[in-house]
Amino acid sequence: MKFGGPATARSQLEYLLAMSERDHITVLVIPFDAGAFPGSGQSVCYAHGPVPHLDTVQLDQSHGSVMLDAEAQLAKYRGLLERMEAVALKVSESRDFIRAVARSL
Q1: Sign of the dihedral defined by the CA atoms of residues 70, 60, 48, 78, in that order
Q2: Residues of the chain falling short of pLDDT 70
Q3: CB 84 within 8 A of CB 37
């Protein structure tokens, strides 16, 4: 079964671009030429707010979501996300990259 196609992919990329313009949303692209990077192959959602003790990491696993909130675990994932951010394109470069891919579809 085939999913989506170029029109669907373009629509999804345009949605990402629109959401990336919001003040509370940051979209960063890690280009393929960055090579292997920390955290590749896993989905990580780090939810944080004004009370750090309430921060939570959500990992999507094949058996379901896993929620982590122990300080040692949070520190590990904060470090991981910092390393991922270090190899990602800057915000404006990420938007340009997404626009270019959307136009090519």
Answers
A1: positive
A2: 1
A3: yes
Instruction: Give the whole-angstrom CA distance, residue 84 versus residue 28.
Output: 9
pLDDT of residue 2: 72
How many CB atoms are closer than 10 A to CB 49? 8
DSSP per-residue letters across the chain: -----HHHHHHHHHHHHHHHTSTT-------GGG-S-TTTT--EEEE--S-GGG-EEEEEETTEEEEE--HHHHHHHHHHHHHHHHHSPPHHHHHHHHHHHHHH-
| Amino acid residing at 1 | M
pLDDT at position 54, please?
Answer: 94
| Domain locations in the chain as residue ranges | 1-29+89-105, 33-88
State how far Cα 42 lies from the chain centre: 10
